[in-house]
Amino acid sequence: MSTTETLRALAADDWRAATTHAFTNALADGTLGRDTMAGYLQQDYLFVEGFVRLLASAVAHAPRLADAVPGAQFLGLICGPENTYFLRALEALGVPQADAAAPETRAFQALMDDARRSGRYEIMLSVLVVAEWIYLDWAAPFEDKADDLPFWLGEWITLHSGDGFEGVVAYLREQLDAVWLDFDDTARADVEATFTKAVALERAFFDAAWAGFPVAR
């Protein structure tokens, strides 16, 4: 079992809840209400700035150029197609960008900011691996349904599935698996705490999205 698989096992209950969630199931079968999706996207878009800063910092802290290049390429995807998707989807759903973050959003924003400010590559990777691997795990089983859905649902699935995104997750996991070998017990405990907290916060965010974030108008 790889290091990242072991870390996932430490958070098995929250991981399973996040990746087989009623929210994502409804998104994939097309029954998710427009307002529910709109509130979710408004809140999720508030993560993009912090995520970009965290990913860029991880790229800057990568041990070698070869370790940095895939992260830099992924940064372009976030700033390009994914950012454009948010703007198109919010416009199609008839809602603006949100100004106010919900408590669940603020909690994950704070975790990303703490990871970036730590200056520790392994802590940044702990958050990045969770954020992307959870999305791959829930989205991949629904990849073949995406074309039959409105784009604001289907495209969210395709952005988080397929060979390209699988490669991103594999890269992030490989980076964390590799640096783990150099850690002492204290550093490993820090990674475990960050990883499991990130999983719990992802679950909490999906729980709040399913309950329905207030939609900014």
Alpha-beta classification = mainly alpha
Distance between the termini: 47 Å
- The gross shape turns out to be globular
Please write the string of helix (H) and strand (E) elements: HHHHHHHHHHH
Mean of residue pLDDT? Answer: 97
Estimate what percentage of residues fall within beta strands. under 5%
Let me know the number of strands.
Answer: 0
Main β sheet profile: none
Helix content: over 70%
Number of helices: 11
Calculate Rg over CA atoms. 17 Å
Give unreliable regions as ranges: none
Protein architecture, described:
This protein is mostly helical and 217 residues long. 77% of the residues lie in helices and 0% in strands. Helix 4 runs antiparallel to helix 6, helix 5 packs across helix 8 (121-139) and helix 8 packs parallel to helix 11 (185-211). It is globular.
Set down the secondary structure blueprint.
Layout (H helix, E strand, L loop, with lengths): L2 H8 L1 H8 L2 H8 L4 H12 L2 H14 L3 H28 L10 H16 L2 H19 L11 H8 L3 H19 L4 H27 L6
Could you name the key traits of this structure?
217 residues, mainly alpha, 11 helices, 0% strand, globular
